[in-house]
Amino acid sequence: MAAPQPTWQRGDLLARFVIPGEPAAKGNSREIVQFGGKVALRKGDKALGFEAIAGMHVTKLPEPYEGDVAVHVRVFYATRRPDLDASLVYDALQTRKIKVGDGFVLEPRLIANDRQVRLKIEEGFVDKDRPRVEVAVYKATQKLVGGAA
To answer: Which helix (H) or strand (E) segment is 119 a member of?
Structure first.
């Protein structure tokens, strides 16, 4: 007899929003740069541009939700060429550290950290006239499935 196994399920809706444009594939959008004689990798301009736009459209809460979440992402690309990669969307959901003067401040977003994403549902479509990303974020809960009937 097999024991029941845990799985994630969607719970209550936390937020639904649309981000105009296409996300860059995070893995394909790195640039090599030099900072003070040291070599480093940074996100490319397309990825940084998408993150800036996404930041304007992500639902923000005064206190970010800190529980587990399930995210349903529907990416509408202008062509079939790009890889389906929603990792920049998950980055945009999380609270960010922003440099202000000599220090940093936290900009609260929808969730505290993208490690809270426990269930990802990603779909890719083509809409050459209106590329966009439709996002729905839900509270996530575990349930047991399977086992003896």
So the answer is: strand 117-126
pTM equals 0.84
Give the SS3 label for residue 100.
strand
**Of 64, 65, 68, which Cα lies nearest the Cα of 142?**
68
Q: How far is CA 148 from CA 2, 5, 8, 71, 145, in A?
A: 6, 11, 20, 30, 10
pLDDT over 60 at 149, yes or no: no
User: By three-state DSSP, how is residue 12 classified?
Assistant: strand
Tokens of 44: 């490319």
Are residues 44 and 24 in contact, defined by beta-carbon separation less than 8 angstroms? yes
Q: How far apart are CA 84 and CA 119, in angstroms?
A: 16
Cβ atoms of 25 and 85 within 8 Å: the answer is yes
Q: Which amino acid is residue 40, in one-letter code?
A: A
Max Cα distance, the chain (Å): 64
Residues paired with 94 in a beta bridge: 111
Q: Mind listing the pLDDT tens digit for each residue in 40-54?
A: 777 788 888 998 999
